[in-house]
Structure formats: structure tokens, C-alpha cells
Specification:
This protein is α+β, with helices and mostly antiparallel strands. The chain contains 13 helices and seven strands. It is flat, with a radius of gyration of 32 Å. It starts with a helix and ends with a helix.
């Protein structure tokens, strides 16, 4: 028997015997004679095992044999260390870097030591600090909150800090390139000026008819749970730009507002505290807005926060259609 198994059985018996004694006492008190007889047998077996293993433990320690608890701990620690060393391996990184001088993507290959906890961002930082200091990569929080480290990994827009390196290695290699829906600056860094400008155009903030109200009011804007749930899932956007990069329309039509901006139009339109009304919907009521969406669903697939921009845009279309229908009915009645 292995030392670790030996000691596990010893301590299991040590815990089981008092529990059996307690159960037997309760059964006697409740006059469950048959159960008491069974527990008598189990307690006797537990005591026998406990005593036998205890004597064996003392004997093994006196004779220096490998059955003691200390030996079991040492053996287990050695196994864990071997597993840890075996888990580490070299992963090839194929980088497609944008060259400012050549104005095109150039391929570079690196080898990085990795284990099962290494992320793609860890690998990129390792390359920059140990192999190639000229590599340009953008990151900040390293925990999936800031959205700065978006790149394309094996053809899919992803956050480098949330992508395990070894799990995404194909034949020991990982392909990394900059996002294509944003203007390229250098290596893996892209320009987000246009992305932020489109976000700003939808007025991403609560609008109140009384502009001074938000600064002078001493009350709050109460919301029910149902009202909050209407917009909350779409408020988790971290503006990482992955949805924009995955969107086939945004990649072919630079005038398209994009899934990020459109999902935020819906987020504020559904907020009961917002008073912009129809003007809010008009921000997306065009071919460059919600009606330009072809519902490919790629934006929702790559979103690291589960915002589901595709669902938001389709819901936005439905709400605009309903508002337009209501206006038409009103004009016909007149």
C-alpha cells in the first residue's frame, strides 16, 4: 500500500470510530436495536483497523520503513513537482506585426516557455522584455476589465489577458495579429480614435430634460428590478473593440456605426431614467446605423463580457419599427 493511501485510511478510521460511537448511542437512546447491532459491528471493525494501522505506523517509524506520514508528504510533493515541470513547455508564437515603414504586416516567430497558467499577454510581455524590446503591444489591467489588449488570436478577436496560451496552441504554435477593423499604428497596436468618436456620437449618458437636475437634486431616480434588468446586461461593455473587429459590416463599411455603439444606443434607450425619447432612437435610425446590421452574430460570439450586441441591435430595430408604426397611426388618425 502507498504511504499516502496508508495514512488516509489511518486517519479515516480515526475519524469514523467516534462518529460510530455517537451513532450507536443515539440508536440505543431511540431504541433502534437492529441499527444498534449493526453499528456495534461497524465500530468493532473501525477500532480494529485503527489499532492495526496505529501499531503498523509505530513499527514502521521505529524501523525506518517508508510508511510514515512524513514520507507520504515528501513523496506527494515530489510527484507534484514532477507534474509541474512536465507541464511547462515551449510554445511557438507567430506574430504578424504591422510595420510603419513598410506599411504592411510582417511575420516574426518567437519561442516562449509556458505552463497551463500562462496567458497570451504573458507571452507577449515575455517576448518584449526578454527577446525583442521593439515589439509594441498595448495592455493595462491584465484582468479583462480595461479592454486594452485586444488582438486576433488564431483568427478570432480576443483579449490577450484572458486567453490561455497552451490551450490555444495548434501543433505547438499560436498565431497572433493586430485587429483589422481599426487603423493600424505599430505591430499589435491599433488606433481607436474613430471607434471612440462613434461611441461619443450616440451620447452615451443619461439625458434629463432639466439639465440642472442632476447636479442640484437631493433625491434619486428610483428603478424597479424589472426596469433595471431591461438594460443591465448591455451595460457591461468595456469598449475593447472586439465586436467591431469581428463584424463583417464594420470591416467593409467604415461609415457603419458598429455593434458597440449601437448596443449602447439600446442600453440607454431602455433605461427608465433617460428622457431623450425618440431622439435617442433616431441616432441609430439609418443605413449606417441599426438598419445596416446584417445580423451575422459574430460580435456577440467574441464579446468577453457576454453583452450580446447582436441581440441589442435587433431589439433596437424592433423598437424603432414600433415607434415608426405608432407615429404613422397617429398621423392617419388626424
Amino acid at each position: 500500500m502507498k504511504a499516502s493511501h496508508y495514512m488516509a485510511l489511518f486517519y479515516a478510521a480515526m475519524v469514523a470510530v467516534p462518529l460510530l460511537f455517537a451513532a450507536e448511542t443515539i440508536s440505543i437512546y431511540l431504541n433502534y436495536l437492529k441499527m444498534s447491532a449493526v453499528l456495534d459491528v461497524l465500530t468493532a471493525i473501525g477500532l480494529a483497523v485503527y489499532c492495526a494501522l496505529g501499531f503498523a505506523e509505530v513499527y514502521s517509524q521505529r524501523n525506518g520503513k517508508a510508511n510514515s506520514l512524513l514520507h507520504g508528504i515528501v513523496v506527494s510533493a515530489g510527484k507534484r513537482e514532477r507534474v509541474r515541470k512536465k507541464a511547462g513547455q515551449t510554445v511557438g508564437i507567430n506574430l504578424k506585426r504591422f510595420s510603419m515603414e513598410e506599411r504592411r504586416l510582417e511575420s516574426s516567430t518567437y519561442a516562449v516557455k509556458a505552463n497551463r497558467f500562462t496567458t497570451v499577454l504573458d507571452a507577449l510581455i515575455s517576448i518584449k522584455s526578454e527577446q525583442d524590446s521593439t515589439l509594441a503591444v498595448r495592455y493595462s489591467c491584465r484582468m479583462g476589465i480595461c479592454g486594452s489588449c485586444g488582438v486576433v488570436i488564431n483568427g478570432k478577436p480576443s483579449l490577450a489577458c484572458e486567453t490561455p496560451l497552451m490551450e490555444n496552441a495548434r501543433n505547438g504554435r499560436v498565431e497572433i495579429e493586430p485587429m483589422r477593423a481599426h487603423p493600424l499604428l505599430k505591430d499589435l497596436v491599433t488606433d481607436f480614435d474613430d471607434f471612440f468618436a462613434k461611441h461619443k456620437e450616440i451620447h452615451p449618458g443619461l439625458y434629463r430634460k432639466n439639465e440642472k437636475e442632476q447636479s442640484i437634486t437631493k433625491s434619486v431616480y428610483p428603478q424597479s428590478k424589472e426596469e433595471r434588468d431591461m438594460y443591465l446586461p448591455f451595460s457591461y461593455c468595456i469598449m475593447c473593440g472586439l465586436c467591431q473587429d469581428a463584424c463583417p459590416v464594420a470591416n467593409s463599411n467604415k461609415e457603419f456605426a458598429g455593434p458597440q455603439a449601437l448596443s449602447q444606443v439600446y442600453r440607454y434607450a431602455m433605461d427608465s431614467r433617460d428622457q431623450m425619447g425618440a431622439k435617442r432612437l433616431n441616432l441609430a435610425n439609418s443605413l449606417e446605423g441599426a438598419w445596416g446590421c446584417e445580423f451575422a452574430g459574430a460580435c456577440s460570439e467574441v464579446c468577453p463580457k457576454g453583452v450580446d450586441p447582436a441581440a441589442a441591435i435587433q431589439s433596437l430595430k424592433f423598437r424603432m419599427f414600433r415607434e415608426n408604426a405608432s407615429e404613422k397611426e397617429g398621423s392617419d388618425d388626424e
